[in-house]
Design a protein that fits this description.
Keywords: ATP-binding, Ligase, Nucleotide-binding
Helix content: 10-25%
Enzyme class: ligase
Shape: elongated
Distance between the termini: 49 Å
Pfam families: Diphthami_syn_2, Ribonuc_L-PSP
EC number: 6.3.1.14
GO molecular function, one term: ATP binding
Number of strands: 31
Largest sheet: 8 strands, mixed
Strand content: 25-35%
């Protein structure tokens, strides 16, 4: 695509241009925001303003027109989010971010074919969120190939690629005026040492220094600083603030001609590349004696609840089974049905003193995810959300006749809610391909959107198609999103793998085993996934942070969850603890603690399987439970399940239940008998029935008739 470079003149904005070029994009213009005449620098939260005297030379070196605007606004909105969570929200009047909107709008007037904006952001969510907000309003795509890169690696790459940038401002501990004018190559060792001593950001992401680029692979000319002046702003003994005033500069022919190419990062980290090999080998092992799973459509009708199912616990609210009234009227468009669902949702939320912006996670079920269907659903969906929309999983399932859409959600009014909503192309993980955030944190939970195996720089699936590469990518994307959403990472409490071929469940299971993923897990085969993907991974994460009493006060502790699972067999209840990582010897491969308790065995097939994630913290209950069932569990079986010590404290805090069931299985009576024993009639979690073509879980290819994933809150 054709793009405009958002230029500060620094190393990051210039180096990102090389990656835009490497990904096939065409630079047509540059744009910059400057302080008012007579000011070398202003205190801006958004823009690098020092060095603006030389920015014209950077554009001339690139041989593209430069568009400039004077910064007139202030940093009025200084929160993590920018704009309103309500649908259709604009910017903040008088904020300096709106100067960027006016600038890029002017660029579009002169270059109507511009589609992208090069952004050199590495770590700053503050800057990224605001640039993306402007780009969304102007229908522009942010190109941010440095986003979330390791700073030490990135600095080395810049130097190796021929980026010649000099320090023009210092404002970090250990940096002084004598470092002004030094190149990155000359400063690399010093910056690395200061990082080790004081935690200084090697690429200056904490504002420790600013740079001006004198040469880069894309420059047609090199810049020479003919006359400069050191200006001392704050003469502090440990961290003085000083900058270089550019009084005179000139362009000179480049000594060596370069093609502007840079080395593009490997698609997969080493550990995920190994996981890809595991899946490839699994596919090869089964190639001769296994055929692709085929699904025979069933005419067996099944019913869904007529009304939405709701359940509230404290400030949490779960709403399930939202769908339009089943209607044979084929004239009702999908967009109208989506709007119907969200209108219902709005009404329910308002009755609980909540609003759409309090929704943290949504599961959207459609009859198909063909391109037109997916686009139509997203168009209507987007009408109900502004900035920082909920996280989401979107899957195509075999909905009952006359039902074109169904959804379920979890909401909570919480001022600490944080959303990771990345909309730019990068090497990090895919930008959102719909109106959703990659993750929403409402402590202690991080709700992560379903991840498919898109190539982040292009948002396309691998070609030729590859289950192994898609699987490795969804694992890597999920891991990166978790780390970006929560600085301390987190612990996965539940993993759902949505698949379109039951033969792929075994290969995905092997990937889980390789990744040492010990958590309640389900493999669910459905009709279709976004973009024609073969696998989508959705996880629920817990921060692992707890506040516990400590004598006369409270203290913050970090904990890792234990995973337990077991089976209840027909005729007599017998609990088989298939994995209980509580005490004993450490597993050398996974680093988990394996229980020394003897595993019981039974020749009879299990009728119930349970899995749980729990933290060994006094006063807490398990946060997530999965139950799988086959046939019709008896009341005695369910009573035994309810009394299991690891589960007994959970039933009264269960908020939501996603009930996955085979379309051709009689699931309703089995779930009804289980739910009545466990929850009674009054404390039933909000339930959504989700039709699947195949359901399996950890450790076995055996298929279950139905399974339920339960979320608990306290």
């Amino acid at each position: 695509m054709k793009y405009v470079a958002l230029l500060s003149g620094g190393k990051d904005s210039c180096y990102n241009l090389s990656h835009c070029n490497a990904n096939g994009h065409q630079l047509v213009a540059a744009a910059t925001l400057s302080p008012q005449s007579g000011k070398d620098e202003i205190d801006s939260y958004m823009y690098q303003t020092v060095g603006q005297d030389a920015i014209e030379f950077v554009a001339r070196a690139l041989e593209v027109p430069l568009y400039r605007r004077v910064i007139q606004g202030d940093a009025i909105e200084q929160n993590a989010e920018y704009g309103s969570r309500s649908a259709g929200g604009a910017g903040v009047l008088g904020d300096e971010t709106e100067d960027l909107y006016t600038l890029l709008d002017d660029v579009k007037v002169h270059h109507p074919d511009v589609q992208g904006v090069s952004v050199g952001a590495i770590l700053s969510n503050y800057q990224r969120v605001r640039v993306e907000h402007v780009c969304r309003r102007l229908s522009l795509t942010p190109l941010a190939y440095l986003w979330q890169r390791d700073q030490a690696e990135l600095l080395s790459e810049m130097i190796a690629a021929g980026i010649k940038s000099v320090l023009i401002k210092v404002a970090g501990i250990g940096l002084t005026a004598k470092h002004l004018g030094k190149t990155l190559n000359e400063m690399q060792e010093i910056l690395t040492r200061l990082n080790s001593l004081y935690g200084l950001h090697i690429c200056g992401e904490g504002g420790e220094y600013e740079t001006l680029t004198l040469d880069s692979p894309l420059f047609k000319h090199r810049i020479v600083l003919d006359e400069t002046e050191v200006v001392m702003h704050t003469d502090n003994e440990f961290a003085p603030v000083a900058y270089l005033r550019i009084k005179r500069a000139s362009l000179h022919p480049k000594e060596l001609s370069t093609d502007g190419r840079v080395e593009v990062l490997p698609l997969l980290e080493d550990r995920f590349s190994e996981l890809k090999n595991v899946v490839e080998n699994s596919v090869l092992d089964r190639h001769e004696d296994s055929s692709s799973g085929t699904y025979e459509p069933t005419n067996k009708p099944y019913r869904i609840l007529d009304l939405p199912s709701t359940h509230a616990i404290g400030s949490w609210l779960a709403i399930g089974n939202i769908h339009p009234d089943p209607s044979p009227d084929s004239e009702t468009s999908l967009e109208e049905q989506v709007r119907d669902c969200f209108t219902q949702l709005q009404g329910i939320l308002e009755s609980h003193d909540l609003r759409m912006e309090d929704v943290v996670n949504i599961t959207l079920l459609l009859p198909s995810l063909a391109s037109k269907v997916f686009s139509a659903a997203n168009k209507a969906y987007a009408e109900f959300f502004g900035v920082s929309p909920p996280s989401r999983a979107c899957v195509g399932v075999d909905l009952p006749e006359g039902v074109g859409v169904m959804l379920e959600c979890v909401a909570r009014k919480d001022d600490t809610r944080r959303a990771l909503h990345v909309q730019g192309l990068s090497y990090w993980a895919p930008a959102n391909i719909g109106p959703y955030s990659q993750a929403v944190t409402v402590e202690p939970y991080v709700f992560v959107s379903g991840q498919i195996g898109l190539l982040p720089p292009s948002l396309t699936l691998p070609s030729p198609p590859s289950l192994a590469l898609e699987t490795a990518l969804v694992f890597q994307h999920t891991d990166r999103v978790i780390r970006a959403a929560n600085t301390t990472g987190g612990h996965v409490l539940l993993s759902l793998y949505w698949l379109v071929d039951d033969a792929d469940s075994m290969h995905t299971r092997r990937a889980c085993e390789t990744f040492c993923e010990e958590t309640p897990t389900l493999f669910l085969v459905v009709a279709s996934l976004p973009r024609g993907a073969r696998i989508e991974k959705q996880v629920l994460v817990h921060t692992g942070e707890f506040t516990v009493p400590d004598e006369d006060t409270f203290t913050q502790v970090s904990r890792t969850p234990d995973f337990l699972s077991g089976d209840i067999h027909a005729v007599r209840a017998q609990i088989s603890r298939t994995a209980e990582f509580l005490s004993g010897d450490v597993d050398a491969e996974c680093g988990m603690t394996a229980s020394s308790e003897m595993i019981l065995d039974s020749t009879r097939p299990s009728i119930l399987n349970w899995q749980v994630s729990r933290f060994d913290v006094s006063g807490t209950s398990p946060q997530c439970v999965v139950i799988c069932a086959r046939g019709h569990p008896s009341q005695e079986d369910v009573i035994e399940l309810g009394k299991i010590p690891s589960l007994s404290a959970f039933w009264e805090i269960a908020l939501s239940a996603r009930l996955f069931h085979r379309v051709d299985a009689d699931f309703s009576s089995g779930w009804l008998s289980v739910s009545r024993v466990l929850f009674g009639d009054k404390d039933m979690p909000a339930t959504t029935s989700i039709p699947c073509r195949y359901i399996s879980t950890r450790g076995s290819d055996e298929q279950w008739d139905w399974a339920v994933a339960l979320l608990g809150v306290s």
